[in-house]
């Protein structure tokens, strides 16, 4: 049964969103609703618009048309407070997530302290607890460059959830990692999903999409071609474009 069927409220509503970069029409009428506790995975070829879509939700890119609603609030309204909106959303990107000049713990507590004004002792207690939970309690005083890429991404994820955001956006968070480090990062995402986080994730990791997504959304040239459960998309794709995309992935000579 889907989150929608269970009557969970919509956390994110993307409605008729268009985005152009000069002559290039990168998002062409995107409609997407994400319900509380749902994990939606965006798949599609490089350049299909996955990152741009996530950036419009975090207000890193302005939409040209349409609107985006976060838990009932139109965040694309020009009067919306950008910092207040970003404080409600946790984000992890492919690269450059941690501040290199700050310790792991300082990175994790930063938003709690600066954005929410959490007292230092309380923020550090929560930071240490979160780091311990992902097995990195002993790295709290280290600088990020002393951690593996997988450990750094896990810290970045923990930092993004430290403030209990309403929505977590994950953009290709494993694509810069050595293959043997991918699993530990995706396992943490699975745990967050199991604990009830609401997640939108762009990924090239199809096996993960299959395992964790409630819904898989296939994007091509800025259009949602098809969306459904992992079984619907991977086992019984309805659209020829989706079938071609998936067939190409499994062909080592054209992938
Ligand atoms: N700031 C920008 N200025 C101009 N063009 C941009 C900008 N950001 C993205 N684009 C273009 O928009 C298109 C969609 O890019 P986007 O990064 O959203 O794709 P993607 O599906 O996330 O790709 P990938 O899987 O490689 O990350 C691409 O053609 C890209 O070159």
UniProtKB/TrEMBL annotation:
What SUPFAM superfamilies does the annotation carry?
Answer: P-loop containing nucleoside triphosphate hydrolases
Listed Pfam families: ABC_tran (PF00005)
The region annotated as signal peptide is none
Q: Does the keyword Glycoprotein apply?
A: no
Write down the superkingdom of origin. Bacteria
**InterPro entries listed in its UniProt record:** AAA+_ATPase (IPR003593), ABC_ATPase_HisP-typ (IPR030679), ABC_transporter-like_ATP-bd (IPR003439), ABC_transporter-like_CS (IPR017871), MetN_ABC_transporter-like (IPR050086), P-loop_NTPase (IPR027417)
Q: Which UniProt keywords apply?
A: Amino-acid transport, ATP-binding, Cell membrane, Membrane, Nucleotide-binding, Transport
**Compartments (UniProt record):** Cell membrane
From the UniProt record, which GO molecular function terms apply? ATP binding
Please state every residue range assigned to the domain named ABC transporter.
12-246
How does the protein associate with the membrane?
Peripheral membrane protein
**Similarity field:** Belongs to the ABC transporter superfamily.
Tell me what this protein is called.
Amino acid ABC transporter ATP-binding protein
């Amino acid at each position: 049964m889907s989150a929608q069927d269970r009557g969970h409220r919509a956390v994110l509503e993307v409605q008729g969103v268009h985005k152009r970069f000069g002559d290039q029409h990168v998002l062409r009428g995107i409609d997407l609703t994400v319900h509380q506790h749902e994990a939606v995975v965006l798949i599609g070829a490089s350049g299909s618009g996955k990152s741009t879509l996530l950036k419009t939700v975090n207000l890193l890119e302005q939409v040209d048309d349409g609107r985006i609603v976060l838990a009932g609030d139109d965040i694309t309204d020009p009067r919306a407070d950008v910092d207040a909106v970003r404080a409600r959303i946790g984000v992890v990107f492919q690269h450059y997530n941690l501040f290199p000049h700050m310790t792991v713990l300082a990175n994790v507590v930063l938003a709690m302290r600066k954005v929410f004004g959490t007292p230092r002792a309380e923020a550090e207690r929560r930071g240490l607890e979160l780091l311990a939970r992902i097995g990195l309690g002993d790295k709290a005083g280290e600088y990020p460059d002393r951690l593996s890429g997988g450990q750094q991404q896990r810290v970045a994820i923990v930092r993004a959830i430290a403030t209990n955001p309403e929505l977590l956006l994950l953009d290709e968070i494993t694509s810069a990692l050595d293959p043997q480090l991918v699993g530990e990062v995706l396992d943490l995402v699975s745990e967050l999903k199991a604990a009830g986080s609401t997640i939108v994730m762009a990924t090239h990791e199809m096996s993960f999409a299959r395992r964790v997504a409630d819904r898989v959304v296939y994007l091509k040239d800025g259009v949602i071609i098809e969306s459904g459960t992992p079984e619907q998309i991977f086992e019984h794709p309805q659209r020829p474009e989706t079938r071609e995309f998936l067939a190409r992935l499994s062909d080592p000579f054209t992938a």
